[in-house]
Each structure stands twice: as C-alpha cells, then as structure tokens.
Design brief:
Elements (H helix, E strand, L loop, with lengths): L3 E6 L6 H14 L4 E5 L5 H11 L8 H25 L3 E5 L2 H11 L4 H12 L6 E6 L2 H11 L12 H17 L4 E5 L4 H16 L2
Parallel strand pairs: 1-3, 1-4, 2-3, 4-5
C-alpha cells in the first residue's frame, strides 16, 4: 500500500476535527489526493454504530459492550474505506483511531490494555497510522469549548465527569511518550492559525522523511 495514513487524536474539545479539515485542504492544494474520515464512522455501517455508541440515552451500556462496538465500527471502516484508499496511494486523515480506544476505554474506563490490544488487532487487519498528531488541552477547557459550540448538548462520552477526561488526557500523553516516533504532541491551547502551523510543520517533516 503506497498511501499515507495520518490520525488525529486527543481529548474532547481539543480542536482536532477542525485541524484535520484544514490539513486536508492544505494537502489538496498541493496536489495530494486526500480522504478525510472519522471514528467511529466513515462508512454506512460504522456511522450507524457511532449513533448507537455515542447516544447518551444508553447510559447502561457496559464497558466491554462499548469497546466491542468501537472495534466493530473500526473493522468495517478499515476494510471498506481505509485499505482501498491506501492501495490507491491517497493520504488518509482520520479523526481518531486506535489510540482513542486505549485512552478512553483503557485509561478512562480501566479496561485491561491487553484486551484492548487483542480486540484492536483483529479490527485493524494490520493497518497502523504512519503519523499521529496528539492534540493536548486541559480537559476542563476542552469540555467548555464543546458545551459552548453544541449549546450544552454532549454525547455519552463527552458527558462523563472531569476525572474521566483527565485520565483520558493522561492516556494520550502516555501513548505519545511510548511511541514518540509515530506520535507528535500539538499544543492545542494556541490560536487556530498557530495550531495549524504546528500541524503543517509536523506533517511536512514526516513527508520529507
């Protein structure tokens, strides 16, 4: 597969979705074929699972049910969209991927990382990101951004307590430390333009090898 797989990770409200779209436009303007997608989601089946797993009315959802739903959405996403795009030599920019599962369900929920790894290995079918940008922001600030943008409405995970989101943030930072060759931390406290410049510099550095 000759394509490039870039993932955007980080706590809720860190601005990664906006930055993913800006990066996509930047690369498109420079002649790259870009596919923008997200997790959970990206395909018809995966988007249907997204609606289920993030619906706040399903507060009784068991932790292992949650992780299996995420894995099911990912397996469909990888097979139907990501692998074909990589085979066609495209640049994939994905809003969340496997690191979110480890951060949210592992560090956040306390699920055994070994179980998460086993489930994910089946779902990703050997496909791993070439570059991961980890957007770092204090959870309290991120949640305030979300509430302001969504007029107080939050999904099932966004609605978890601050302590949960703090564990998630620490999870992302731990992943970045452990896999520093793949993961690059972006300071999401800065302005939209400043963060975009950070992103472009990191991506260009990767592309130049």
């Amino acid at each position: 597969m000759t394509g490039i797989f870039i993932t955007m990770e980080g706590p809720d409200g860190a601005g990664k979705t906006t930055q993913a779209k800006l990066l996509g436009q930047y690369l498109t303007d420079r002649g790259r074929q870009v596919v923008f997608t997200r997790e959970p989601g990206g395909t018809r089946i995966s988007e249907a699972i997204r609606q289920l797993v993030l619906d706040p009315t399903y507060g009784e959802m068991a932790d292992k049910t949650e992780i299996l739903l995420y894995a099911a959405a990912r397996a469909q996403h990888v097979r139907e969209l990501i692998i074909p795009a990589l085979e066609e030599g495209k640049v994939i920019i994905c809003d969340r991927f496997i690191d979110s599962t480890l951060a949210y369900q592992g560090y956040g929920r306390g699920i055994d990382p070994a179980l998460i790894k086993t489930v994910n290995e089946m779902a990703i079918q050997g496909v791993k990101p070439h570059l991961t940008l980890v957007f770092d922001l204090e959870p309290g600030e991120g949640l305030e951004r979300i509430k302001e943008r969504q007029k107080g409405e939050v999904d099932r995970l966004e609605g978890e307590g601050l302590a949960f989101h703090q564990r998630v943030r620490q999870g992302f930072l731990a992943i970045a430390r452990e896999e520093e060759q793949r993961c690059k931390v972006v300071d999401a406290r800065k302005s939209l333009e400043q963060v975009h410049r950070q992103v472009v510099q990191l991506v260009e550095a990767y592309l130049k090898g």
